[in-house]
Amino acid sequence: MSEEKKRPLILVVNDDGVFAKGIRALAEVMIDFGDVVLVAPDKPQSGMGHAVTLHDPIRLKKVLYEVPVSAAYSCSGTPVDAVKIAISRVLHRKPDLLVSGINHGANNSINVIYSGTMSAAIEGAVEDIPSIGFSLLDHSAEADFDASQDVVRTVVKNALEHGIPKGVCLNVNIPKGLKKDIHGIRVCTQARARWEEEFEERTDPAGKKYYWMTGEFRNLDDRDDCDEAVLRNNFVSVVPVHFDLTAYHTLPHFSQWKLQ
Amino acid sequence: MSEEKKRPLILVVNDDGVFAKGIRALAEVMIDFGDVVLVAPDKPQSGMGHAVTLHDPIRLKKVLYEVPVSAAYSCSGTPVDAVKIAISRVLHRKPDLLVSGINHGANNSINVIYSGTMSAAIEGAVEDIPSIGFSLLDHSAEADFDASQDVVRTVVKNALEHGIPKGVCLNVNIPKGLKKDIHGIRVCTQARARWEEEFEERTDPAGKKYYWMTGEFRNLDDRDDCDEAVLRNNFVSVVPVHFDLTAYHTLPHFSQWKLQ
Questions:
Q1: What phi, psi does B149 have (nearest 5°)?
Q2: Could B49 and A49 be called an inter-chain contact, meaning their C-beta atoms sit closer than 8 Å?
Q3: Per-residue confidence at A260, pLDDT binned at 50, 70, 90?
Q4: What is the fold of A9-191+223-243?
């Protein structure tokens, strides 16, 4: 056996689809860190949350890819499906690292629960794989991922050197802008916020009504160390995210309940 | 103004579809507690997690319902869509209580993150609505919800009397069986567990491969007060669930990271 450290096996996923600009930008960085296999949805899956495909079969297709990764596949399911089928049918083992993104659009604050990008990373954490989701605060299909690639390099280097605590993945959000405009990287907390929806009513040619969801983001958190504040000040936000949803601090409340 | 307390406005949702046996059983109980409006998906949406419909319009249709609720609607989207459009376009205000289910199948432990039933309840909590998800550990379409209806009555009565802490919803899971077999109700914690997937390969008539997701649930938690243990002992489990995914306990770990 050589004493040289084996190159890590890295799974790259996203929710914007296998050919989105953001996942190509991510793959370009990751090939410097290890052997990269890409398995991503065959169509945009934004807002899919932690959905899994239970009632339909899943298709998996090898695709030609312009970034020189070891292999790239498109998958007909959700981002979480992509992680699961990648482990079971493509890699035939758990990868050493899972990176998801780079998402076109913010996934900080409450967006983490709606986000396909972050659900893929959370699924990785459930499987005990060191996992990181990256998102850029720019929805545009042609967004500039130049500064984001530097952020990916810094965060991945630290993750490989220092490890990510077990049961946790990272939610990394990157402000829009040039490298010189980004002031640094801050580990911080998920801001309390919500979307306030309106549903725009339209009428189809048959005279039947339908609705488009539109919404306005409302921040409800005034802490300096929440991700909303960190991003507003042009820092990159890094939130360690876990999947034990138990609200431990509220358990004493229930001693007054009469449950017998 | 009368001194009589106004009847609460109750939103009933689910992920198995508007005509599932479980949501009818839930509606039957809830009409004793207040004015009930039902808005639920027009087809099964199990495993939809916290998905929202961003790229398609949503249809809403008033349906005739055998339980005498104030109104019942089917909705073309996900369970979370149903909650959002119910508030915006049906109720025109937030309900006083949101109940989701009764799900045909378990949503305890890690299932909470994949569950459409629980995502609807979590969405309610995000919107500051007292919200409860109910699930029966029986997947059958013809499951017996008789014992479950008693559990719903007890939990809802307590929720209305004592309140649910802000930022929290309840994940209630009910063992399969007759009333006499259920030993009580326990407030407890989310068990650490995961699904280990296999993907069954098939070949379509055109000779192309496709995969069905199958999985085996693996409990990794040996605590007596986790929901897996509580249910195994034939108690109903009640886990208070929140949506701040920040892993606060891991924040000190990152002081060693070099992020500048």
A1: -60, -35
A2: yes
A3: confident
A4: Stationary-phase Survival Protein Sure Homolog; Chain: A, (3.40.1210)
Contacts A–B by Cβ distance under 8 A:
236
Q: For A18-67, how does the pLDDT look when each residue is reduced to its tens digit (9 = 90+)?
A: 999 999 999 999 999 999 999 999 998 888 888 888 889 999 999 999 99
Nearest to A111 by CA among A85, A139, A76, A86: A139
Q: CA A32, A33, A36: angle at the middle one, nearest 5?
A: 90
* CB neighbourhood size of B141 (10 A): 11
Chain B residues lying within 8 Å of A168, measured CB to CB:
247, 250
Complex ipTM value: 0.94
Is there a contact between B14 and B119 (Cβ–Cβ < 8 Å)? no
Query: What CATH number does the domain located at B9-190+224-243 have?
Result: 3.40.1210.10
| pLDDT tens-digit map of B49-90 | 888 888 899 999 999 999 999 999 999 999 999 999 999 999
* Contact in structure between A133 and A237 (CB atoms under 8 Å): no
- Nearest CB among B127, B168, B250 relative to A194 is that of B127
Q: What are phi and psi of B247, to 5 degrees?
A: -90, 75
